[in-house]
Write a structure and sequence with these properties.
The structure is a homodimer. Chain A has about 240 residues and is α/β, with parallel strands linked by helices. Chain A has eight helices and seven strands; from the N terminus they run E-H-E-H-E-H-H-E-H-H-E-H-E-E-H. Chain A has one domain: HUPs (Rossmann fold, 3-Layer(aba) Sandwich), CATH 3.40.50.620. In chain A, the strands form two sheets. Chain A has a five-stranded parallel β-sheet, with helices on both faces. In chain A, a hairpin with a 2-residue loop joins strand 6 and strand 7.
């Protein structure tokens, strides 16, 4: 297969959450034509997919594709239906308590593998992933070592790497940022965080999606906004402390 | 997530072809309870899926799961609908002619990532993949370096690798075998190759699936049977030279 290298394209994994939205904006700010890939992996919070579409549109992605891969067929995660979503955990428990129940087995490996497949077809060499090692220290596949290992694999796994010596890069511009930093970075890049969705366990009331305010994702997000001195524009369940 | 290590389980990628059938038999012969994973990645030859079910059943897999991942959404391969399936290529062209049109971008990376996700849930550490470096030298993701790189990645990518220090292994027992060796190995292991399907471009006539006899997969398979002094039990299109 002939692959025309094109430095201008990047494949960005866009989930609909705050982190991947800012990551997509970073890819655009770095000069890439962005190709947004949204993977429906069987997560319970399907309204993420609608958020992903809004985010890709608002940040001028060259295109957005959705791919269904039903990881819930394997079970093993609270995010895909096995077990309860943890609620009201302390900051310490979220940050340091080992691998959380919301961990989806090998999720980032699957996501990057799919991004790599598309990148090879597009002639893109740059993959963007919105992982964050600081707030999610319990996720093994959110660490720099994991990302470097994937780059090495990509080199060997593809016709592009093998025949053309192309160097694949996995960019994770948020890796070392706190949620506070991400809120401020969103502001600097003109990302409308009101379009994003982070909650693992949203409610629907009168046709409106409300974030629960109590799952790890909500708690981290709200803490980030508080520390940044900003108000989160998304709607939360009644009684949520902002 | 608590993962109970169980040395007795292996996840085996089973496509329905001859190579993955023999690989599944090797996993069983090595003493594993085999969990067969069949990925429908948008290949044109969907009768492979029926073959995969027959193979898993006949080789006593503990269970078989099918997962749909539509890689054809990305394009880029003759196997998923882009461009023509090459026909009547010489042995030399098949063996040494660079990356063939039937290469599916990053396919084995995607397959192994999915196998890893299931393995982590099952508490399995052993992945079996029926790749073969000899006959498919043009596929970058059929080389030992690629498999070792994936093992390194798996170690870093998973809660199992990180928390329990489990060592993931990617087994490719056919890596150095010729198709002739594989035919003979199938015989030794009691694999009924009549249940398998290899053709990239099968015909259907009177409700029967006929292998075309002319695509790379058919040519390699027929050559293997000829060299082994055996007759391929599957049905071929009229005029196929065996």
């Amino acid at each position: 297969m002939a692959v025309v290298p094109s430095l201008a394209r990047a494949v960005c994994l866009v989930s609909g959450g705050m982190d991947s939205a800012v990551t997509l904006a970073e890819a655009r700010a770095a000069g890439f034509a962005t190709h947004a890939l949204t993977v429906a992996y069987g997560q319970r919070h399907a309204c993420e997919l609608a958020a992903a579409r809004r985010v890709a549109r608002s940040l001028g992605a060259a295109e957005q594709r959705e791919l269904a891969v039903d990881l819930s067929a394997f079970g093993g995660s609270a995010l895909t239906g096995a077990g309860a979503i943890p609620k009201d955990r302390s900051d310490e428990a979220i940050a340091g308590g080992g691998v959380p129940a919301s961990y989806v087995p090998a999720r980032n490996t699957v996501l990057l593998a799919l991004a790599l497949a598309w990148a090879e077809v597009l002639g893109a060499r740059d993959l963007y992933l919105g992982v964050n090692a600081l707030d999610y220290s319990g996720y093994p596949d959110c660490r720099a070592e994991f990302l470097r290992a994937f780059e090495s694999l990509a080199q060997l796994a593809t016709a592009a790497g093998t025949e053309h010596g192309a160097h694949f890069r996995v960019h994770a511009p948020l890796l070392a940022l706190s949620k506070k930093d991400i809120v401020l970075r969103a502001e600097a890049l003109g990302v409308d965080l009101g379009l994003t969705h982070s909650c693992y366990d949203p409610l629907e009331a009168a046709g409106q999606v409300l974030a629960c305010g109590r799952c790890d994702a909500c708690r981290l997000r709200l803490k980030g906004f508080r520390e940044a001195g900003r108000r989160d524009p998304v709607a939360y369940a009644e009684g949520t402390e902002r």
